[in-house]
């Protein structure tokens, strides 16, 4: 009997997974997960749109006819149009340097890229205020030169860039590290210039990861509240972005208008989620095929 048991193949540890749990436990885990998503994700989105259309389509679209709302939307789009391309350039440059080269201070650079993830957005906004505010380190000199950073568009852009610059870089660094440098070295050996190698070899290989990072960066830039709230000064019609305008409307008990404007951010979140899922599917399919097209 002992000899027979010794010859029987043993089940590998990898086959012992959660699927061996009792059906009741699996159903309980699924129920808890679905209930959590329903309570903290689906229901809040439903409430936003229900409250936004509480007075019908006329009341909904009336919220966007106010000058302050139009100004907030325009400012948000302007800030995103400036911050996202700059973060795109920084993310490409930083990820290229980190993934393709070895240099002193590389670990420090990676740590600095992760810094906005560990610093509160309010703190980062306060830092810019202490630097460029009227009583800040450089504020008086800048004001004497007729340059206003805090409580103006430049301060909002700087704060937005700070809180969003890790998204592109953090998406590209592991992707470039995994790909290595073999293809670039081959292109250079065949006589391609550095720029030609980048545009014909490197960029096509990372395009899906790049789009994914830009998508997340844009969503965060348009929805940022904490850092922008500190450096903007909450000047209606001038320095209020969409999230700040929603806060003002809600504090004034103009709930329908507040939820109507907030529905724009909700729609942005849904569109971002759909595009994110598509890019993950496409990117995953490329990886399964052995290449990233």
UniProtKB/TrEMBL annotation:
Keywords: Cell inner membrane, Cell membrane, Membrane, Sulfate transport, Transmembrane, Transmembrane helix, Transport. The chain crosses the membrane at residues 28-50, 70-96, 108-134, 146-169, 255-275. It is found in: Cell inner membrane. Residues 73-274 form the ABC transmembrane type-1 domain. PROSITE patterns: ABC_TM1. GO terms for cellular component: plasma membrane. GO terms for molecular function: ABC-type sulfate transporter activity. It comes from the Bacteria. Its main location: membrane. The complex is composed of two ATP-binding proteins (CysA), two transmembrane proteins (CysT and CysW) and a solute-binding protein (CysP). Part of the ABC transporter complex CysAWTP (TC 3.A.1.6.1) involved in sulfate/thiosulfate import. Probably responsible for the translocation of the substrate across the membrane. This is Sulfate transport system permease protein CysW. It comes from Microvirga vignae.
């Amino acid at each position: 009997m002992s000899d027979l048991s010794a010859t029987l193949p043993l089940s590998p540890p990898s086959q012992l997974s959660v699927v061996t749990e009792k059906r009741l436990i699996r159903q309980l885990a699924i129920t808890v997960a679905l209930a959590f998503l329903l309570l903290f994700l689906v229901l809040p989105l439903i409430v936003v749109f229900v409250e936004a259309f509480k007075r019908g389509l006329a009341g909904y679209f009336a919220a966007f006819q106010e000058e302050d709302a139009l100004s907030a939307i325009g400012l948000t789009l302007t800030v995103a149009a400036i911050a996202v391309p700059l973060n795109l350039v920084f993310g490409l440059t930083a990820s290229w340097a980190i993934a393709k080269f070895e240099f002193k201070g590389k670990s420090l650079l990676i740590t600095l890229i992760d810094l906005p993830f560990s610093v509160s957005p309010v703190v980062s906004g306060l830092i810019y205020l202490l630097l460029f505010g009227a009583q800040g380190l450089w504020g008086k000199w800048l004001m004497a030169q007729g340059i206003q950073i805090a409580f103006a568009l430049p301060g909002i852009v700087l704060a937005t860039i700070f809180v969003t610059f890790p998204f592109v870089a953090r998406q590209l660094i592991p992707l470039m590290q995994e790909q290595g440098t073999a293809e670039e070295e081959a292109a250079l050996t065949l006589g391609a210039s550095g720029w030609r190698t980048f545009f014909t070899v490197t960029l096509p290989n990372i395009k899906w990861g790049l789009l994914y990072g830009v998508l997340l960066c844009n969503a965060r830039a348009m929805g940022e509240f904490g850092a922008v709230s500190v450096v903007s000064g909450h000047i209606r019609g001038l320095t209020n972005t969409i999230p700040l305008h929603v806060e003002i409307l809600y504090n004034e008990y103009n709930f329908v208008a507040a939820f109507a404007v907030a529905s724009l951010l909700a729609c942005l979140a849904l569109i971002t989620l759909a595009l994110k899922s598509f890019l993950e599917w496409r990117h995953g399919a490329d990886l399964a095929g052995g290449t990233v097209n």
